[in-house]
């Protein structure tokens, strides 16, 4: 059975583990373990009638809600069926610029979107184990994620702002930025009015635990947004997600609860991993941790599935990482402890 190219493939994991997919403890998808805010279930129930009609093809309310949250006019916002969907149009825009530098190891969908338009891609491997990072200017377009998936590396706003003066188009995938509290955030959103060559991608599926509902958005200069809308299929965001999006962003209580949860549980999990012989976790700004392992990751993944019904993300699909690493999401204490106990029992030798 081929290895999945994304996290969260319970069906695959259940087959390897020989158990019900629902019984799998999933550390491979980087989703908020608090789940969606409690009110979302009622909201969806009360608004089921929206599925009978076409959504507003211009998504006026949704764009107003997202724009208001970021202090931008609706014309600066275009929503999509998750960030992955929108990456397609960002790939097209980047491919049309000329040579595109892709910061790697890169989320698989960055590759997909660029290849879909035969982009001339040059890769730049992020030296995530170093403190000093200098990204050379190669080509016209640049695509990177911040915080970076899968390493958890956080570029500073100052580092990235310097790039905006020299590149024709800079696309920053901030799909995990909302896991950082406003004091820690290095988002470039506030720079948008100054730079028409800046595009920011956001996801609402991870932070708000709505990976199956799907919702993401692009923020960029209105001319670009208009172009993306023209390229896009109509009604790509379903009516329920469209009605929900603006309200999600207003739930400050849920956001604060998530930031508090992550600060505590990240530290617990990081420290626990660092104590296991044969493992070396890398500091991460996001809700996941990249770990170097002396036992090849696919073998460790198999053992954790068969012996403990735990799914971790191996990094075989990232050529720069190969068999020597895995990635785990930060979850609640009990789950994190289960993972640490399982890893210890597998006796990974240093
Ligand atoms: C860096 C990055 N961007 C985008 C996505 C896709 O997010 P969405 O669920 O909104 O499509 C992911 C999903 O893992 C990701 O890691």
Automatic annotation (TrEMBL):
GO terms for biological process: cobalamin biosynthetic process. Its cofactor is pyridoxal 5'-phosphate. It catalyses: O-phospho-L-threonine + H(+) = (R)-1-aminopropan-2-yl phosphate + CO2. The keyword Lyase applies. The keyword GTP-binding does not apply. Pathway: Cofactor biosynthesis; adenosylcobalamin biosynthesis. InterPro entries: Aminotransferase_I/II_large, CobD, NHTrfase_class1_PyrdxlP-BS, PyrdxlP-dep_Trfase, PyrdxlP-dep_Trfase_major, PyrdxlP-dep_Trfase_small. Decarboxylates L-threonine-O-3-phosphate to yield (R)-1-amino-2-propanol O-2-phosphate, the precursor for the linkage between the nucleotide loop and the corrin ring in cobalamin. NCBIfam families: L_thr_O3P_dcar. This is threonine-phosphate decarboxylase. It comes from Gloeomargarita lithophora Alchichica-D10.
